[in-house]
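Entry for the shared binder. Reason: the reviewer on the internal report wants the predicted structure included alongside the sequence.
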Amino acid sequence: MKEENKLQLTNVNKFYKLGNKNTFHALTDINVNFKKGELVSIIGESGSGKSTLMNLIGGLDSDFEGDIIADGVNLRTLKDKQLDNYRKNKVGFVFQSFNLIPHLTILDNVTIALTLSNEKESVKVEKATKLLSRLGLEKQLKKKPNQLSGGQKQRVAIARALINEPEIILADEPTGALDSGTTIQILDILKEIADEGKLVIMVTHSEKVASISSRVVEISDGKIVRDEKNKNYKKGKKKASQALVEENQDKNSNKKSTKQNLSLWSALRLSFHNMWASKTKNLLMAIGVSISILAMIIMLSFGSGLTDYISNLAEEYNNPYYVSITKKSQKGQDGNDMMGSPFKPLSFNIKDKDENNKDEVDRLIDQINQELSKNQKQFQVDRNQNLSFGFSVMTFGTNTSFSFKCDENGVYNPEGTQTSSKDLFFIYTTPPYYEKSNMIAGELSGMNEILLSKAAVKALGFESPEELVENKPIVSINIPTLGINTDGISSQEHNLTGNPTISGIIDVTNLFEGFPVMYIDYNYFSKLVEYSQELTGKQIPFAPTSVYIKTDDPKTTDLITHYLDSLDTYSGAVEQQFAGMFSSMLSTFSIALAVISGISLFVAAIMILVVLYMSVSERTREIGVLKSIGARRKDIKRIFSTESFLIGLLSGIVGILLSLLAGLILIIIFNATLGLAPISFRWWYFVGALGISIFISVLSGLYPASKAAKLDPVESLRHE
């Protein structure tokens, strides 16, 4: 008896909630039993409740009163996951409108039920191919649903319903969209399925369909008003057992697979098919998101490129055997910062002595030597042996220039009748670690000599340093005025006279190589100041702004440098100060770029969310189909989540490729215009960008995926 009674409905009632808080009684006290091998037609007018009854039997709707017992299991007591397994393994749906997934092939439409059961690919293909072949569709496997006739589509729907070998087949108006000839073919197939021993229940308006059934159940106003058997019904010769049942099926293997659920790999494959179906839309969305990724990578690379450039300049300027020391800004008596900076460096006080007859430099040397002793260093700083002074001043052309004889075109000519004056950007005493290897042409300067930068050479009208050297001597370089700042508060102008010659052109890679810069020997510069004092009778408060310590090895240099960095009073060389200043500016700039990138990524995330949300709406019926064949909420969520993952992955890859292309173009442009390309890619930028792209995409897809998972299967199948 248990084997014959496949389905039993006892006192089943169904109520629908209306908007005015009232209810509609859709089914009233339904009591009916169904046995295996029956071909049952449920007939009735529209709105009579027959489709509602089919949804309850199929487990699509679990909100009812009474009992529906299938194979001894009461559906009313099942949880959502158990109902999913019931639809996956016990029930097969055949719909009037076929409900095939349009972007999947015929083969994939049938195997999708096995995909949800995590069946092996080879097993899926073999079972579906045999089933479709025996339904006369062996030549249609790779086609899409829109390439088939109505009868062929319905055969595919039947194959999908049968692929998991359910015991109950529910067909909702299976011939409603077919012509008379095709209707007969589909009814023959359904009859064969019933004759093979399965329970087939058809919902129909057609008396013709009902006439070939073994039993007719009529519903009116939610009640069963007729239930009678067809005395003329004859079973076939069970050819369906050969046509529709898998040969040599391993029952144990099948049971094992149906207990499994949609795997991540299967979800990825299914999601890839879904995305490929809307490849144009998804590609455009990926390009839109990739623009944000591109902007982020380029901004980071530009910031790191500038930072690297400045750091490299500072490193190239520094000699590993020399420590360069300048003074940091200090508070004045009024509490304001004294202008101790590269623009107006503070000078070392070498005139005022303390009670031990030591000036500021002596005291600094004592501190450094104590630190070296703590670290067991034998090297000691000695003012007379390994210490020297320097002076630097930023001018910006406001009060310092060099003059020379020139022709009417302003080009240097010692016999010229005119004088040309060019502004200087920076006056710098030649550091002790500058060597002959730094020279482009000529020699290092001494007394009555100066060095010029490449930019200063161009200011003289020469095309190249070699040309300048060939036209030596330069006999009249005048320094008419010089603003010397020594106390950090005021700047005084004093005439410095002299007729130095240009000893050479220097090429030291530093922050000022693009500006007219003059390098002068410190002792010579001191003599010029003294000479100016004698001429004017005015005391010029001149003192060094830099101190240089020559060490015994780079480790000692690093030790002293790190110690000085820990102090509040002293800093590194002028170039190092500029590097620090620019680095600070770049940090601010990088933060601004990060904010801009964050905004663009936020916009991209909103775009992904909107597109995926619209995708859920567009694919509502597809979601209903998946739920009708046993897809769990978790499966639906996984499908949409993996789609968002693939979108993020695609966006990240496209963004990386575009950033490489854009970076290459920018490098070419910068090299052509600036002679350098401050763009530095880091491999972790690409990894991070890809991770961020995937993260924001998956995050944006959480809500659409959750919404898709929560859709009601009945409402989804009705969605237009």
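Summary line for the report: The first strand starts at residue 5 and ends at 17.
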